[in-house]
Design a protein that fits this description.
mainly alpha, about 70% helix
Length: about 425
């Protein structure tokens, strides 16, 4: 500490030395003792103020970054800010849209959630520079659902060659336009969006979307890496709830049952989530795996759920039901599975899970009647209509699928 104090004192003395020297010579003098001319004032560097559209977009992006970190009030206030910003920009003189800086800000605003109205207004001004016209027309076509026209105009623009705020939003939009025909290019564009806008809602949206493109392509290694990254960095995002539903559906499409080591990696991914969220996600995975006939995944997810629940809770009842329904067709597990099914409290189950219980009991009845299967006590009667139909899609998965469709539509329209 003494050394630091001495160092600080020395610096202070050095800072004071010129003033003391000047005082000892009676003022500013040159080497010959003549008074020196006062130093010229240093003019500040010229700084061009931001235009109104740029300021509006910066404010919107700051608010959206808070949404990515989980701010509910920011999410609620976004609509009001979008309306206010659009009104302010529409009130500008038409000549404002002759400036490419304002055009880029307006396109960033529109693709970032502002919608097509401002772009229509700008085009009506007839002031858009020729070099900016494809960007405006392509963005408007995208927001109005004219994908072929948008793809023709926007995919010719290099997202890495424009300012990063627009570039990240443009790369996200371009990825949505090419994902069906060229998933690999879509992934490259999503990588670019994440690179250009780290820590923002654009990165959150790009990361979320890329995870599911990878799942569709069965790129398990990168899927795992990006899923863990999302769960670590954006677990509190306002959109994280939707992500988890889609994530559960994606997990069941990936065949974890073919490699025992994959279960460890699945567990590592889900361990990034808090216990309550992890439990709910495991339940979603178990139920969806049953519907897809992936019994090993269903058993694993159900058993993990049991470790995260208190005995007797609805979640515990559901987990044991899913485990038994998956094991009832496994050699050597028939009796214990039937016993679990018999002991399941139907009154706490949702209708879809009651249907699953009835279907599992019907399956057990059929197995019991197969020659060579040990006799067990009579099974409870199962409604005829349940025996004859497939296991229904549970309400949670149905809601998840509906959410997937809605979010995909929103992402397509807004570039999220």
């Amino acid at each position: 500490m003494a050394r630091f104090a001495i160092l600080a004192l020395g610096i202070g003395l050095l800072a004071q030395a010129p003033a003391h020297a000047a005082e000892s010579h009676g003022g500013n003098h040159d080497a010959g003792g003549h008074a020196a001319a006062p130093a010229a004032a240093i003019e500040p560097l010229p700084v061009k103020p931001y235009t109104l559209p740029v300021e509006m977009v910066r404010t919107l992006q700051l608010l959206q970054d808070r949404i990515a970190q989980g701010s509910g009030p920011a999410h609620t206030g976004q609509r009001a800010l979008l309306a206010h910003a659009e009104d302010r920009m529409r009130a500008l003189e038409p000549n404002a849209w002759a400036d490419p800086v304002n055009i880029r800000a307006a396109v960033t605003f529109a693709l970032g959630g502002g919608g097509p109205a401002l772009l229509r207004h700008i085009l009506a001004s007839a002031k858009v520079p020729a070099e900016s016209t494809p960007l405006v027309l392509g963005s408007l076509a995208f927001l109005e659902g004219r994908e072929k026209e948008a793809r023709t105009l926007l995919t010719k623009i290099d997202a890495a060659s424009v300012p990063v705020g627009l570039g990240a939003q443009l790369a996200l939009t371009q990825s949505a336009l090419v994902v069906r025909d060229d998933p690999a290019q879509s992934i490259r564009l999503l990588d670019l969006a994440r690179l250009l806008a780290p820590g923002t809602l654009v990165e959150e949206g790009a990361l979320r979307r890329e995870i599911f493109v990878l799942a569709q392509g069965n790129d398990l290694a990168k899927f795992e890496a990006l899923a863990i990254q999302y769960l670590r960095r954006f677990r509190h995002s306002v959109y994280a709830g939707n992500f988890r539903q889609r994530f559960a559906a994606a997990l069941t499409r990936l065949d974890f049952g073919t490699d025992a080591g994959r279960f460890a990696r699945l567990q590592a991914m889900l361990d990034e989530i808090e216990p309550d969220g992890r439990r709910d996600l495991y339940l979603l995975v178990a139920r969806a795996a049953l519907d897809q006939g992936k019994n090993a995944t269903a058993v694993f997810a159900a058993e993990r759920t049991v470790t995260l629940t208190e005995p007797g809770t609805v979640a515990a009842v559901r987990a044991r039901l899913y485990r038994a329904a998956a094991l009832v067709v496994v050699d050597g597990r028939f009796e214990e599975s039937v016993e679990t099914l018999r002991m399941t409290d139907r009154s706490v189950l949702a209708p879809a899970d009651r249907d699953l219980l009835d279907a599992a009991l019907a399956t057990a009845r059929e197995i019991r009647d197969v020659p060579g299967v040990p006799a067990v006590a009579p099974l409870p009667p199962v409604p005829t209509q349940v025996v004859a139909r497939e296991v229904p899609t549970p309400s949670a998965i149905a809601r998840a699928q509906g959410a997937i469709d809605q979010i995909d539509d929103l992402m397509r329209k807004s570039g999220r």
